[in-house]
Amino acid sequence: MRLSYFNAIGLLGRRFGHPLAPFHPSIPWRSFSENASEILKNEHRVIERVLEVLQRIAERVESGGSLDVESARQAIAFFRGFADRCHHAKEEEHFFPAMESKGFPRHGGPTGVMLYEHERGRECVAAMDEALGAVAGGEVAAAERFVRHAHSYIDLLREHIMKEDSCLFAMADQAFTAEDQKRLVAAFARAEAEKNEPGAHEAFLRSAEELAARYGVPAPAAAYGSHVHCCGH
Ligand SMILES: [Fe+2]
Ligand SMILES: [Fe+2]
Predict the structure, then answer these.
(1) Which of 16, 96, 150, 211 is 20 to 30 Å from the Cα of 117, by its Cα?
(2) DSSP letter at 94?
(3) Distance in angstroms (rounded) separating the CA atoms of residues 27 and 65
(4) 10-residue block means of pLDDT along the chain (233 residues)?
Protein backbone atom coordinates (compact mmCIF):
# COMPACT_ATOMS: atom_id res chain seq x y z
CA MET A 1 0.00 0.00 0.00
CA ARG A 2 1.35 3.38 -1.00
CA LEU A 3 1.76 5.70 1.98
CA SER A 4 0.16 8.92 0.79
CA TYR A 5 1.27 12.39 1.79
CA PHE A 6 -1.60 12.78 4.23
CA ASN A 7 -1.25 9.27 5.65
CA ALA A 8 2.40 9.95 6.29
CA ILE A 9 1.67 13.33 7.85
CA GLY A 10 -1.09 11.74 9.92
CA LEU A 11 0.96 8.86 11.25
CA LEU A 12 4.08 10.84 12.01
CA GLY A 13 2.31 14.02 12.95
CA ARG A 14 0.34 12.35 15.69
CA ARG A 15 3.57 11.35 17.35
CA PHE A 16 6.05 14.10 16.54
CA GLY A 17 4.11 17.14 15.33
CA HIS A 18 4.44 18.03 11.65
CA PRO A 19 7.22 15.80 10.28
CA LEU A 20 8.08 18.13 7.40
CA ALA A 21 8.22 21.27 9.49
CA PRO A 22 11.90 21.11 10.46
CA PHE A 23 12.84 20.70 6.79
CA HIS A 24 10.36 22.93 5.03
CA PRO A 25 10.20 26.64 5.95
CA SER A 26 6.75 27.06 4.42
CA ILE A 27 5.24 24.63 6.93
CA PRO A 28 5.13 26.17 10.39
CA TRP A 29 5.98 23.93 13.33
CA ARG A 30 2.86 22.67 15.10
CA SER A 31 0.96 23.04 11.84
CA PHE A 32 -0.28 19.44 11.80
CA SER A 33 -3.79 19.09 12.99
CA GLU A 34 -6.71 16.71 12.87
CA ASN A 35 -8.84 19.80 12.33
CA ALA A 36 -9.88 20.29 8.69
CA SER A 37 -9.83 24.08 8.83
CA GLU A 38 -6.25 24.03 10.17
CA ILE A 39 -5.18 22.07 7.09
CA LEU A 40 -6.85 24.69 4.87
CA LYS A 41 -5.29 27.55 6.85
CA ASN A 42 -1.83 26.05 6.46
CA GLU A 43 -2.37 25.83 2.71
CA HIS A 44 -3.43 29.51 2.76
CA ARG A 45 -0.02 30.44 4.18
CA VAL A 46 1.70 28.81 1.18
CA ILE A 47 -0.72 30.46 -1.29
CA GLU A 48 -0.09 33.87 0.30
CA ARG A 49 3.65 33.52 -0.28
CA VAL A 50 3.13 32.96 -3.99
CA LEU A 51 0.65 35.88 -4.10
CA GLU A 52 3.44 38.04 -2.68
CA VAL A 53 5.77 36.74 -5.42
CA LEU A 54 3.13 37.63 -8.03
CA GLN A 55 2.86 41.12 -6.57
CA ARG A 56 6.63 41.59 -6.85
CA ILE A 57 6.58 40.33 -10.45
CA ALA A 58 3.86 42.91 -11.24
CA GLU A 59 5.65 45.71 -9.38
CA ARG A 60 8.84 45.08 -11.35
CA VAL A 61 6.91 45.71 -14.58
CA GLU A 62 5.28 48.82 -13.10
CA SER A 63 8.67 50.25 -12.24
CA GLY A 64 9.86 49.85 -15.82
CA GLY A 65 11.36 46.35 -15.73
CA SER A 66 10.50 43.46 -18.00
CA LEU A 67 7.96 40.79 -17.19
CA ASP A 68 9.60 37.71 -15.67
CA VAL A 69 7.73 35.29 -17.93
CA GLU A 70 9.32 32.15 -16.50
CA SER A 71 8.41 32.98 -12.88
CA ALA A 72 4.96 34.19 -13.90
CA ARG A 73 4.33 30.86 -15.66
CA GLN A 74 5.54 28.97 -12.60
CA ALA A 75 3.21 31.04 -10.36
CA ILE A 76 0.24 30.39 -12.65
CA ALA A 77 0.98 26.66 -12.62
CA PHE A 78 1.04 26.84 -8.81
CA PHE A 79 -2.26 28.74 -8.62
CA ARG A 80 -3.94 26.25 -10.94
CA GLY A 81 -2.41 23.11 -9.50
CA PHE A 82 -2.17 23.88 -5.80
CA ALA A 83 -4.54 26.77 -5.00
CA ASP A 84 -7.31 25.53 -7.27
CA ARG A 85 -6.93 21.78 -7.86
CA CYS A 86 -5.65 20.89 -4.36
CA HIS A 87 -7.04 23.58 -2.08
CA HIS A 88 -10.28 24.88 -3.60
CA ALA A 89 -11.31 21.33 -4.47
CA LYS A 90 -11.09 20.35 -0.78
CA GLU A 91 -13.29 23.30 0.09
CA GLU A 92 -15.79 22.87 -2.75
CA GLU A 93 -16.18 19.11 -2.67
CA HIS A 94 -15.91 18.48 1.07
CA PHE A 95 -15.67 21.43 3.46
CA PHE A 96 -18.46 23.62 2.06
CA PRO A 97 -20.92 20.72 1.58
CA ALA A 98 -20.21 19.67 5.19
CA MET A 99 -21.08 23.22 6.31
CA GLU A 100 -24.24 23.17 4.20
CA SER A 101 -25.27 19.88 5.82
CA LYS A 102 -25.10 21.74 9.15
CA GLY A 103 -27.62 24.31 7.94
CA PHE A 104 -25.45 27.03 6.38
CA PRO A 105 -27.27 27.96 3.16
CA ARG A 106 -25.41 28.00 -0.15
CA HIS A 107 -27.74 30.43 -1.92
CA GLY A 108 -27.36 33.80 -0.26
CA GLY A 109 -25.09 32.20 2.34
CA PRO A 110 -21.35 32.15 3.10
CA THR A 111 -20.40 29.13 0.96
CA GLY A 112 -22.20 30.64 -2.05
CA VAL A 113 -20.05 33.77 -1.74
CA MET A 114 -16.86 31.70 -1.46
CA LEU A 115 -17.78 29.63 -4.54
CA TYR A 116 -18.44 32.79 -6.53
CA GLU A 117 -15.02 34.13 -5.53
CA HIS A 118 -13.30 30.86 -6.55
CA GLU A 119 -14.89 31.28 -10.00
CA ARG A 120 -13.72 34.87 -10.25
CA GLY A 121 -10.23 33.74 -9.29
CA ARG A 122 -10.23 31.18 -12.12
CA GLU A 123 -11.18 33.94 -14.55
CA CYS A 124 -8.28 36.11 -13.31
CA VAL A 125 -5.80 33.22 -13.70
CA ALA A 126 -7.07 32.50 -17.23
CA ALA A 127 -6.73 36.20 -18.10
CA MET A 128 -3.17 36.32 -16.72
CA ASP A 129 -2.31 33.21 -18.71
CA GLU A 130 -3.70 34.74 -21.90
CA ALA A 131 -1.70 37.95 -21.37
CA LEU A 132 1.43 35.96 -20.63
CA GLY A 133 1.02 34.02 -23.88
CA ALA A 134 0.66 37.29 -25.76
CA VAL A 135 3.84 38.69 -24.17
CA ALA A 136 5.72 35.51 -25.06
CA GLY A 137 4.36 35.89 -28.60
CA GLY A 138 5.89 39.36 -28.88
CA GLU A 139 2.99 41.63 -27.85
CA VAL A 140 4.93 43.83 -25.44
CA ALA A 141 1.85 45.83 -24.40
CA ALA A 142 0.23 42.66 -23.01
CA ALA A 143 2.54 42.95 -19.97
CA GLU A 144 0.33 45.80 -18.76
CA ARG A 145 -2.72 43.55 -19.13
CA PHE A 146 -0.96 40.84 -17.15
CA VAL A 147 -0.21 43.29 -14.34
CA ARG A 148 -3.83 44.49 -14.21
CA HIS A 149 -5.20 40.94 -13.93
CA ALA A 150 -2.48 40.01 -11.42
CA HIS A 151 -3.56 42.84 -9.11
CA SER A 152 -7.22 41.81 -9.42
CA TYR A 153 -6.29 38.23 -8.49
CA ILE A 154 -4.05 39.27 -5.59
CA ASP A 155 -6.72 41.55 -4.10
CA LEU A 156 -9.46 38.96 -4.60
CA LEU A 157 -7.58 36.02 -3.12
CA ARG A 158 -6.08 37.90 -0.15
CA GLU A 159 -9.51 39.16 0.82
CA HIS A 160 -11.02 35.70 0.24
CA ILE A 161 -8.42 34.01 2.44
CA MET A 162 -8.98 36.61 5.15
CA LYS A 163 -12.74 35.93 5.13
CA GLU A 164 -12.19 32.17 5.37
CA ASP A 165 -9.51 32.33 8.07
CA SER A 166 -11.19 34.88 10.27
CA CYS A 167 -14.85 34.09 9.82
CA LEU A 168 -15.95 31.09 7.79
CA PHE A 169 -13.68 28.51 9.45
CA ALA A 170 -14.60 29.74 12.92
CA MET A 171 -18.29 29.26 12.10
CA ALA A 172 -17.61 25.79 10.68
CA ASP A 173 -15.49 24.71 13.65
CA GLN A 174 -18.34 25.60 15.98
CA ALA A 175 -20.77 23.51 13.94
CA PHE A 176 -18.56 20.45 13.26
CA THR A 177 -18.27 17.61 15.75
CA ALA A 178 -14.99 15.76 16.33
CA GLU A 179 -16.40 12.99 14.12
CA ASP A 180 -17.13 15.51 11.32
CA GLN A 181 -13.55 16.77 11.55
CA LYS A 182 -12.17 13.25 11.30
CA ARG A 183 -14.34 12.49 8.28
CA LEU A 184 -13.23 15.72 6.56
CA VAL A 185 -9.54 15.12 7.20
CA ALA A 186 -9.91 11.63 5.69
CA ALA A 187 -11.83 13.06 2.71
CA PHE A 188 -9.07 15.64 2.15
CA ALA A 189 -6.50 12.84 2.07
CA ARG A 190 -8.54 10.88 -0.46
CA ALA A 191 -9.10 13.98 -2.62
CA GLU A 192 -5.38 14.72 -2.59
CA ALA A 193 -4.55 11.17 -3.69
CA GLU A 194 -7.23 11.13 -6.41
CA LYS A 195 -6.55 14.54 -7.94
CA ASN A 196 -2.77 14.51 -7.96
CA GLU A 197 0.04 12.34 -9.13
CA PRO A 198 2.08 10.92 -6.24
CA GLY A 199 4.47 13.62 -5.02
CA ALA A 200 2.59 16.48 -6.72
CA HIS A 201 1.70 18.19 -3.44
CA GLU A 202 5.33 18.21 -2.32
CA ALA A 203 6.40 19.43 -5.79
CA PHE A 204 4.03 22.40 -5.49
CA LEU A 205 5.42 23.21 -2.02
CA ARG A 206 8.94 23.12 -3.46
CA SER A 207 7.86 25.33 -6.37
CA ALA A 208 6.37 27.88 -3.94
CA GLU A 209 9.57 27.80 -1.91
CA GLU A 210 11.70 28.29 -5.03
CA LEU A 211 9.63 31.29 -6.19
CA ALA A 212 9.67 32.81 -2.70
CA ALA A 213 13.46 32.44 -2.49
CA ARG A 214 13.89 33.99 -5.96
CA TYR A 215 11.85 37.04 -4.94
CA GLY A 216 13.01 37.28 -1.32
CA VAL A 217 9.60 36.55 0.19
CA PRO A 218 10.09 35.47 3.80
CA ALA A 219 8.43 32.41 5.36
CA PRO A 220 5.27 33.20 7.32
CA ALA A 221 5.48 33.76 11.06
CA ALA A 222 5.30 30.40 12.83
CA ALA A 223 2.12 31.04 14.75
CA TYR A 224 -1.13 32.30 13.43
CA GLY A 225 -4.65 32.27 14.66
CA SER A 226 -4.37 33.84 18.08
CA HIS A 227 -4.68 37.32 16.56
CA VAL A 228 -7.52 36.37 14.24
CA HIS A 229 -11.00 37.33 15.29
CA CYS A 230 -14.25 36.34 13.66
CA CYS A 231 -15.62 38.90 11.20
CA GLY A 232 -13.21 41.59 12.38
CA HIS A 233 -14.51 41.70 15.95
FE1 LIG B 1 -11.85 29.36 -0.69
FE1 LIG C 1 -9.28 28.65 1.13
Answers:
(1) 211
(2) I
(3) 32
(4) 33 33 37 80 97 98 96 98 94 98 95 98 98 94 97 98 97 96 95 85 96 95 44 40
Our CA angle for 124, 161, 175, nearest 5°, is 130
How far, in Å, from the CA of 30 to the mean position of ligand 1?
A: 23
Quick one: pLDDT at residue 25?
Answer: 39
CA distances from 56 to 53, 134, 175 (A): 5, 20, 39
Smallest-distance ligand from the CA of 36: 2
CA of 165 to the centre of ligand 1 (A): 10
Going from the Cα of 160 to the center of ligand 1, the distance in angstroms, rounded, reads 6
- Residues by chain with Cβ below 5 Å of ion ligand 2: 164
Q: What is the pTM of this model?
A: 0.82
Q: How far is the centre of ligand 2, averaged over its atoms, from the C-alpha of 125 (Å)?
A: 16
Q: Cβ–Cβ contacts within 10 Å for residue 230, how many?
A: 13
CA 77 to ligand 2 centroid distance, Å: 17
CATH 1.20.120.520 fits 35-232, yes or no: yes
